[in-house]
Amino acid sequence: MSVKTSPPPRARPQAAREHPSGDPRFNLIDRTLKRFSYQQDALIEVLHTAQETFGFLSDDLLIYVARQLKLPLSWVYGVATFYHFFTLKPQGKHTCIVCMGTACYVKRAAEIVAALQQAFHVEPGGTTADGLLSLSTARCLGSCGLAPVLVLDGEVLGRETPESTLERVRQLLLTERSEAAPSANGDAVHVTNGGIHEPI
Amino acid sequence: MNRSDLEALAQRELQRQQAFRCRILCCASTPCLSSGATAVYDAINAAIKEGELDAEVQAVSTGCMGPCSRGPMVTVQVKDEGEFIYEHVSPEVGRQLVTYHARSAASPAEELPEPLRTRLLPSDMPFFAKQKKVVLSNSGLIDPERLEDYVARGGYAALAHALREMTPEEVCREIINSGLRGRGGAGYPTGLKWDMVRKARGDKKYVIANGDEGDPGAYMDRTLMESDPHRVLEGMAIAGYAVGADQGYIYVRGEYPIAAKRLERAIRTAERRGLLGSRILDSNFNFRIDVRIGAGAFVCGEETALMASIMGRRGQPTPRPPYPAQSGLWGKPTLINNVETFGNIAPIIQNGAEWFASIGTAKSKGTKIFALAGKVATTGLIEVPMGITLREIVYDIGGGIPNDLAFKAAQTGGPSGGCIPAQYLDTPVDYESLKALGSIMGSGGLIIMDEHSCMVDVAKFFMEFCMDESCGKCVPCRVGTVQMHRLLERITDGSATLQDLETLKELCVMVKETSLCGLGQSAPNPVLSTIQYFLDEYEAHIRERRCPAGVCTLEKTPVTEWVHA
Amino acid sequence: MSVVTLTINDELVSAQEGQTLLSVLQERGIEVPTLCHLDGLSERGGCRLCMVEMEGTGRLQAACVTQVQEGMVVHTHSERLVKYRRMILELLFSERNHVCAVCVMNGHCELQWEAAQIGMDHVRYEYLNPDLPMDASHERFVIDHNRCILCTRCVRVCDEIEGAHVWDVMGRGVNSRVIADLNQPWGTSQSCTSCGKCVQVCPTGALFSKGATVAEMEKQHNFLRWILDGREKKIWSYENGK
Question: For residue B108, is pLDDT > 80?
Fold first, then answer.
């Protein structure tokens, strides 16, 4: 073994890699990059971190990841769009994921989705125009004993019916609106109407 | 840590547990958590504190106990009195459990005070009596986050035994002799696979545990990883020793954050104790395990696609051969087994191949975990010996079909499997029998359907799933699944003709035979098996434009009728 | 290299060990349809047209990714195989918009040629008619996603020969699409060298030169062999290459 001389101390070794935007959240991505010593194979792990940190994968973020891992842009974009977990669009403030696994399907989860779709004017995989609610479906959350299951803002709820789900979501959005803008009554009324309209 | 340290640790933990008069085990796996198990656990802990019962009563948060639809589940172990299993426990009931069991001596079940009496499950309940727990033997009894709990129940003894007393060749031989077959669905003999990787030449080898449980309706692997993570790690370490690998990966589905967290924690604990990492149990064997989290793609359950995903690429399968045993991760020989398969390893090494081979049927040995769901009274996770009949599972363990409806079909193997009709209820559940019926064992999803389920609609559901999950690499799967789905849609909306049914059948066979990977090759199975057993339903949709189960709304008309009208 | 003997369509054939079955078939002049395979690029095994029957295994194998083995018994044109090939071509035609009459590659298209060879005169499946864009932002070339069959020859040639990796595939299943860089207009791609290799290897009218009109586009594949041979023999200039 040859004796290594330690390199001269640098002022701020981190500074060189800091993202030009100065957004401190990029440091979290850098941490993951470093954990996997900038291996190209860590792309999915890095994208996981990026999505957790930023909520969605913007073009800017994908370019950053591609540059850091020295991967072609189209490669990174291809991987990000292959997996369901990654989303390239900003998500709504609240998310509602309805399980459409076999057990939930047999217990009519599709009716819950249809009810939500009708009440809040949002397609599965989409976000309401006001950016408050994202609706999506999942392929089995593994809580089949409680079918039909949905996840509302990270909380797993079992044995739901279209009525109970509509009620929950409506409550959630109501508090949201009254907190955000107490004066904007018209808006809140609109949502209530949209929700109450004869849930099947 | 060496072998005697391990035994000492087990002894210490056992003594600690025996000091309590009463242990209250609260299920903390996903289904019970979503029924409010956290509040129950907190209430029980609070009651222990209030009653100053810390020395007598211990509350433990454990893994799955089985009957998930009855959660939150709580088991109370009372010294010299036995076990009491309670269903639907609320925080209030939890508090009463503490005060009752800590103080009162056992009384017959019918004399228990309300509300405990109605919530107590009878000790001879067929749900438990007909099961045989091998892989799940610790599940629901230990705290998955404590290594000591696992060690106290004989954990890591198999690894210690293998490292000290056995050569890698002997380990492989033992697994071959046990007759264990892959629990991921295809049923390839596990020992032969191990031996192939052991013999493969290479300076570096890998072991992968496939925890990408994508079948809708299946959650066996998740429960195992959540309830007993160390068992999976021990199985992988033994495999690593047997094939000569020093690096392992567990690929966990992205939908299972709790499982991933518990595995990460288990790996760190085991490494700290010298049960993983370098120089395991003071031997010369080194083995590291890393967790890799999937990102939502069913096709990644296919082994070549899974490896592509671990290497950070699009999860597209590659043609085999070369098989992973010769050229897998980064071109190195790779052993890839299902999580449940690894769960079987430690018991086999500990109790011997003969013991394991004595369970099950001639060609299918051991037990199988099923996720029982759908239209049965008790849904949940069950472990049964191979060769048990479907009737026993549905009517004894599952408690029959609710609302006095008739059993119509059992769906096994998810989107790759098929439907088994009522006339085959007495078929033994093993790899060969299910295959002969046009279904597969699969990873263990078992969904029961009653007469209100339309089989064409079910076939359409699975085809939609395969269509969404097709990776798009090969033409038969990419376009074939879409066309099959269109044809099924036409049948369920009333616009199909008998010619469409013929086209559908022909397309199914073609996609099955020409697709690149297992996803495409098995995607037509649900359609083919429902056509085989429920052709009358298809014909009722087409000829009479009527859905016998009353699920589909047939509001369209075939174009030919317009032409001839 | 040792020699292996195998039986193809009841005829004894000898081949080099390590050769793919497809190359043996081509040497013997046995025509098996291919679309994703291109001599000089890595194999993909995606189009499934070169499937052959292998006695003993009961399974069909794609000839392009199967290595010859001693004692193999292969059938290349059984009734079943011809039927399946036709069905696969029908699926391809139903997937996107392949209207030959208005295509720049009419008369020179590999997809069209294979369909004509096999006698595919109509499509029994529903046309999916997806609404796909056409990108003419590049100064010399155009990509028309309606004609793309996702063979990924362009992706492979760009990665393996040109080394630019402009192209890749996004999405999955029937929603897959070939993309340049971050799914941006081709003309704005900064990694594209405008070499045109992707255009030349494309089997259909999905990639073509600007200005070509119906049936005018013809493609040259032999440049690939020429580049690869040159690399192997270390001939770097055109004169010496001749």
Answer: no
Residues A14, A33: contact at Cβ < 8 Å? no
Indicate the average pLDDT of chain C.
Answer: 92
The topology (CATH level 3) of B18-123 is: Glutaredoxin (3.40.30)
Superfamily holding A94-177: Glutaredoxin (3.40.30.10)
Better pLDDT: B514 or A132: B514
Q: Could you give the CA distance from residue A26 to residue A68 in angstroms, rounded to a whole number?
A: 12
- Residue B150 CB coordination number (10 Å): 26
Residues of B with CB under 8 A from a CB of C: 297, 314, 318-319, 321, 467-476, 478-483, 486, 503, 506-507, 510, 513-516
Q: What are phi and psi of B186, to 5 degrees?
A: -75, -30
Instruction: Give the whole-angstrom CA distance, residue A134 versus residue B390.
Output: 41
CATH class of the domain at C84-232 = alpha beta
Q: How many other CB atoms are there within 10 angstroms of residue A191's CB atom?
A: 21
The yes-or-no verdict on residue B499 having pLDDT over 50 is yes
CA angle C110/C113/C115 to nearest 5° reads: 110
Q: Could you tell me the fold of the domain covering B154-354?
A: Rossmann fold (3.40.50)
Query: What pLDDT shows up at residue B564?
Result: 64
Sheet holding C207-209, edge to edge: C134-135, C141-144, C207-209
Nearest alpha carbon to residue B320 among C150, C50, C45: C45
User: Are B34 and A158 inside 8 Å of each other by CB?
Assistant: yes
- Assigned token pair, C188: 């704005």
3-state secondary structure of A48: helix
As a whole number of angstroms, the distance between CA B153 and CA B238 comes to: 18
B272 C-beta neighbours (distance < 10 Å), count: 12
CB B551 within 8 A of CB B501: no
pLDDT at residue B535 is higher than 50: yes
Return the domain boundaries, chain C.
3-77, 84-232
Assigned fold of C3-77 = Ubiquitin-like (UB roll) (3.10.20)
Of B319, B478, B486, the CB nearest to C173: B478
- CATH tag, B455-560: 1.20.1440.230
With an 8 Å Cβ cutoff, are A44 and B69 in contact? Answer: no
What one-character-per-residue DSSP string does A85-145 give? Answer: T--SSPPPSEEEEEE-SHHHHHTTHHHHHHHHHHHHT--TTEE-TTSSEEEEEES--S-GG
Instruction: Label residue B33 exposed, middle or buried (CB < 10 Å: 0-12, 13-18, 19+).
Output: buried
- Going from N- to C-terminal start, the domains of chain B cover 18-123, 154-354, 367-450, 455-560
Segment A29-47 shows an average pLDDT of 93
> The CATH number of B367-450 is which of 1.20.1630.10, 3.10.20.600, 3.40.50.720, 1.10.10.10?
3.10.20.600
Distance CA B467, CA B501 (A): 19
- Tell me if the bond preceding A7 is cis, omega within 30° of 0: no
Closest residue in B to A99 (Cα) is B216
Helix (H, G, I), strand (E, B) or coil at C79: helix
The 3-state DSSP class for residue A163 equals helix
| Chain-chain contact of B34 with A143 (C-beta, under 8 angstroms) | yes
In this structure, are residues B148 and B8 in contact, taking their beta carbons and an 8 Å threshold?
A: no
Task: Tell me if domain C3-77 and domain C84-232 are identical in fold.
Answer: no
For residue B153, what are its two tokens?
């129940």
Across the range B450-461, mean pLDDT stands at 92
* Every domain of chain A and the residues it spans: 15-82, 94-177
| Cα distances (angstroms) measured from residue B100 to each of A151, B97, B109, B121 | 36, 5, 13, 17
Q: ω into residue B321 within 30 of 0, thus cis? A: yes
Burial class (CB in 10 A: 0-12, 13-18, 19+), B50: exposed
Q: Which of B219, B310, B449 sits opposite A144 (nearest CB)?
A: B219
The first and second tokens of residue B197, run together, are 């990787």
